[in-house]
């Protein structure tokens, strides 16, 4: 038997680790396999790209842990015809995963530097159905609403009403809710036929905070 290149072994272990932690949606697993995470991490962290951990990116932010990306994507229950809003583009990794599964992704980032880097990266890698906007994602993207699904990848202290208002009929939203710089609860909201939102508390997570306004710094 010939030895497999280290990179292949790493990618196989990456898939196994996701399955072991309970990710079972085949389309999500395939998307996680398709998107090369090494292109989304900072140059000094390429060797850790397939470790199941969050890693630092520019502007003091982080690219989420792969398990959390896969779990949130699975919980979002996306369908191929969906239009999805992401708040917190960061590296663009979560947006790339979603782009493999839905028709269109709109992603908002408050740091221009991160938004531009993510836009370039997504274009180079061919994820053409993602639009990256610079701005305050807490306000959503009212001009492009409604969205079938909304995912927030920064922790909100309270559920932003502007976002729930932009959910389509039967829409769903997944977001971390809780105090800044502490453990938060991943919450799933599902819009009922009455228009009310059913809330389900999922797992404990730790995200960087959702901050109001576009970042003053680059
Ligand atoms: N989804 C990203 C990880 C995001 S980290 C990835 O896959 O790499 C959270 C990001 O949310 C940070 O980049 C932070 O700048 C951004 N953020 C925080 N508050 C925001 C807001 N109000 N609007 C838009 N982006 C915000």
SSE layout:
Layout: H1 6-20, H2 26-34, E1 55-56, E2 62-63, H3 66-75, E3 83-87, H4 93-99, E4 104-109, H5 112-124, E5 130-134, E6 147-152, H6 161-164, E7 167-177, E8 184-191, E9 197-205
Parallel strand pairs: 3-4, 3-6, 4-5, 6-7
Antiparallel strand pairs: 1-2, 7-8, 8-9
The structure holds S-adenosyl-L-homocysteine.
S-adenosyl-L-homocysteine (SAH) binds at residues 61-64, 87-88, 90-91, 93-94, 108-111, 114, 136-138, 153-154, 208, 210-212.
First-to-last CA distance: 51 Å
> Treating each run of at least 4 consecutive H or I residues as one helix, how many helices?
6
* Ligand names: S-adenosyl-L-homocysteine
What's the structural domain tally? 1
Output the CATH class name. Answer: Alpha Beta
Percentage of residues assigned to helices: 25-40%
Can you count the beta strands? 9
What string, H for helix and E for strand, traces the elements in order? HHEEHEHEHEEHEEE
Give me the oligomer status.
single chain
Query: Which architecture does the CATH hierarchy give at level 2?
Result: 3-Layer(aba) Sandwich
Instruction: Indicate the overall shape.
Output: globular
CATH topology: Rossmann fold
Strand content: 15-25%
- Return Rg in Å: 17 Å
Tell me the strand order in the biggest sheet: 5-4-3-6-7-8-9
Write a structural description.
- The protein has six helices and nine strands, in the order H-H-E-E-H-E-H-E-H-E-E-H-E-E-E.
- It is an alpha/beta fold and 218 residues long.
- It has one domain (6-205): Vaccinia Virus protein VP39 (Rossmann fold), CATH 3.40.50.
- The strands form two sheets. The chain has a seven-stranded mixed beta sheet, with helices on one face.
- Strand 4, helix 5 and strand 5 form a beta-alpha-beta unit.
- The longest helix has 15 residues, at 6-20.
- It is globular, with a radius of gyration of 17 Å.
- Bound molecules: S-adenosyl-L-homocysteine (SAH).
- S-adenosyl-L-homocysteine binds at residues 61-64, 87-88, 90-91, 93-94, 108-111, 114, 136-138, 153-154, 208, 210-212.
